[in-house]
Amino acid sequence: MKEENKALIEQASTQDNTVYAKDFSEQGFWDKLGTLIRRAEQSVAYIALLLYYTMKSREVGIQQKLAIAGALGYLILPLDLIPDFIPVVGYADDFAAMAAAYRLVKESITPSIRAQASAKCNSWFNNFDQKKAEKKIEG
C-alpha cells in the first residue's frame, strides 16, 4: 500500500467519527452492505454488522452508540478520504473508522452479537471465515 494511502487510513482511524453520526440511517446501512456483498468485502461487512448489532443492544451506553453511529455513518457517506470504488484500498478508510469504533466498544460485543453477525455473513458469503475476519479486525 502506498505511503499516501497509509496516511489517509491513519487519519481516518484517529479522527472523531461521531461527526458522521447524523449520516447514519438503517436504510443507508443495509444499502451499503448490499454493495459490500457484491464486492466480497467480507471483513468490512463483518465489522459493520458487529457494530450495528452492538449499537442495537440495550446493554450499550449512549456514548458507545454515538461512536458506532459515527463510524457507520462514515461507511454510508459517499464522500470518503479514499473513494470506495478504488480496488483493494477503497474501503480501507471505512474499515479504519469502524476499527476505531470497534476498539471503543469491544468489551460490549457479546458472543451472541458475534454469532448474529457471523450468521448473517454466512448467509451472504459462500466462504465466510469468521476467524479470518476477526484476525483482520484485531489487526
Structural account:
- The protein has helices at residues 3-14, 26-38, 42-56, 62-76, 92-105, 111-124, 130-138.
- The protein is mainly alpha-helical and 139 residues long.
- The chain has one domain.
Task: Annotate the secondary structure layout.
Blueprint (H helix, E strand, L loop, with lengths): L2 H12 L11 H13 L3 H15 L5 H15 L15 H14 L5 H14 L5 H9 L1
Helix pairs in contact: 1-5, 2-4, 3-4, 3-5, 3-6, 3-7, 4-5
What labels would you give this structure?
139 residues, 7 helices
Helix and strand element order = HHHHHHH
End-to-end Cα distance, whole Å, is 15 Å
Q: How much helix is in the residues? A: 55-70%
Strand content: under 5%
Question: Quick gist of this model?
Answer:
With 139 residues, the chain is mostly helical. The chain is built from 7 helices and no strands. The chain has helices spanning 3-14, 26-38, 42-56, 62-76, 92-105, 111-124, 130-138.
